[in-house]
Design goal:
With about 160 residues, the protein is α/β, with parallel strands linked by helices. The protein has helices at about 5-10, 70-85, 125-130; strands at about 20, 30-45, 50-60, 90-95, 100-110, 110-115.
Length: about 160
């Protein structure tokens, strides 16, 4: 989810709720303690130089049960961050403390923001010798007239 999307959604909500991948909710007394721009400048395992930027939200819960973050306040925090940090319409990454600090993607369903699992990946599979994923073909779709032939590129093998 991008910054423009969350602001639009927040403007239509009365309360904010975040749901973890296991279906449990972040306690309603959470705070957004940081909104930042995180830049990552790195070389992948194939030697390609890469840059990534995300908007980072850090969710935190304390024993402060009397203060709830409302949608208008979060929109104002996001807009101030965009201005001061000169952020573009970046993809959002959310940090939340579980057993360790977890990093999540962000989606929306119904009335809740969903913290989605993020996965690592090799960005240079072709240079690492990792074979490309094979295309799965349903054999029932092979034309019966061609059933006895197997030409290269036909998808039969």
């Amino acid at each position: 989810m991008k910054l423009s999307e969350i602001k639009k959604l927040l403007n239509s909500l009365e309360t904010i709720a975040f749901e973890l991948p296991d279906g449990s909710l972040v306690p309603r007394h959470f705070h957004v303690t940081e909104v930042g721009k995180v830049s990552k400048h790195f070389i992948d395992c194939g030697g390609t130089l890469r840059k990534e930027e995300v908007a980072n939200f850090q969710l935190w819960e304390a024993d402060d049960y009397d203060h709830r973050l409302n949608p208008e306040k979060l929109v104002s925090i996001i807009e101030l961050s965009e201005k001061i940090l000169e952020m573009e319409d970046l993809e959002i990454e959310v940090e939340y403390q579980g057993e360790t600090i977890g990093k999540y993607g962000l989606d929306f369903k119904g009335e809740s923001f969903l913290l989605t699992n993020k996965l690592t990946d090799c960005l240079a599979k072709d240079k690492c010798g990792i074979p490309a994923e094979k295309t799965k073909v349903n054999l029932s779709f092979i034309n019966k007239e061609e059933g006895n032939s197997c030409a290269p590129g036909s998808g039969c093998c």
